Amino acid sequence: MKRRVKDFARFGGVPEFPDPLHVAQVNLPDWEKFEDVFRDIFTRQYYANHGPLVQELDQRFADFVGAKHAVCVTNGTVALMLLAKALDLSGEVIVPAFTFPATVQALQWAGLTPVLCDVDPDAHMLTPETIAPCITPQTSGILGVHLWGRSCNPEHLQAFAAERGLVLFFDACHATGCSHNHRRIGTFGSGEAFSFHATKIVNGGEGGCITTNDDTLADHLRTMRSFHSTEKAVHVPFRMNGKMSEAQAGLALLSLDQFPDNVLANRYRYKDYLQGLESVSGLRLIEMETDGDTNNFQYVVLEVDNEKTALPRDLLLKLLESENVYCRRHFYPGLHRVFPQLISSGGDQNYEVTEALAGGLLQLPNSQSMTSDHVERVCELIRDMCESADMIREKLNGIV
Ligand SMILES: *Cc1c(COP(=O)(O)O)cnc(C)c1O
Predict the structure, then answer these.
(1) What's the gap in Å between 193 CA and the centre of ligand 1?
(2) Is residue 77 lining ligand 1, measured as CB closer than 6 Å?
(3) Does 363 sit in the ligand 1 pocket, CB within 6 Å?
């Protein structure tokens, strides 16, 4: 039966879900398999320092993406820091203003100056057109981000960077197992950085990895990730403790086994959302697989047209929260507001596209535990809320 306004939790009704639904994936393996892996770690009494499980993950992940090398490290941020440092860049590196703050912070730790660049309204990512005005004589590199698992123009950017003698590398933290033109993300640019954080599709608790086809770069990264002299060491100016533990690698390996099943489950949830929301005016799920790309469907991204929709994004977010449906606003606010000192002196200094995306996108819950029935109930809530929008606004005006 259709809800009345008083039935919504915001106005005194019972929340639709007794337990919270989250955006995060948190894909956990079967307990028995987890126990076996951890029993083996205890038996071997080898917990850190590039043990057998990390070595196995280095190899498995390189094969998985089809890259020559994979270098596993503590987390995705450290992967980005080490990659930026190992590429021996200087001065300015162009990054999108619409990304996770870690993309920018990693460059700062590597001693570089990130320069924020607005993004393309359809791709949500850097393109040669958005980058061109941000280039200065100090620019040495471009750090593209494969957002939502969609590829960041790798071929166009490659040609663009090569023409100008710039180094191109990628933040692939959203794009584990995704591909562009039958080629897996992880093989583009000079190197690509991945995250195995618990909320990503391949879960090591924490964890990260750099993939590359460049032998010299891989040697540098392997030396830099550890302060030990046990691995083949080459001359590098900086080293750190960026090692991945056996516990992380063990979990990530199990998660990699589950990857095809997890993508399938994500894809079903995406299709259910697509069907459940197609009739709502002003709301649109962004397409995940365009131009021959394949996606891991880790994120379900709703574009809320604040002009056309019955309820603006932020009100929808709040109303859903009361029902225990926790959506996210990735990435709010845009990074030009977080790091005003990194605004580009060229380009659109109002960051119009980033502003619009930061104000209009909503990521819907897509966790491992969610069934088709959960998704349908979330969609029904959104439909009912939009239909009762006038009455909801009226009631809220009296309160706030
Ligand atoms: C998760 C993420 C990171 C950081 O990865 P951690 O493993 O959490 O350090 C960086 N960039 C993007 C785009 C991410 O989604």
Answers:
(1) 9
(2) yes
(3) no
Q: Relative to the CA of 200, which ligand 1 atom is closest?
A: 1
Looking at residue 9, its pLDDT comes to: 97
Q: What SS3 class is residue 300?
A: strand
pLDDT, mean of residues 187-211: 98
Work out the average pLDDT over 298-310.
Answer: 95
Q: How far apart are CA 387 and CA 138, in angstroms?
A: 53
Ligand 1 pocket check for 144: Cβ under 6 Å: no
Model confidence at 116, in pLDDT bands (50, 70, 90)? Answer: very high
CA distances from 1 to 7, 81, 169 (A): 11, 53, 52
How much is the pLDDT for 400? 46
* In the predicted structure, residue 230 carries a pLDDT above the cut 70: no
CB 80 within 8 A of CB 309: no
Phi, psi dihedral angles at 217 (to 5 degrees) = -60, -40
Ligand 1 geometric centre to CA of 130 (Å)? 23
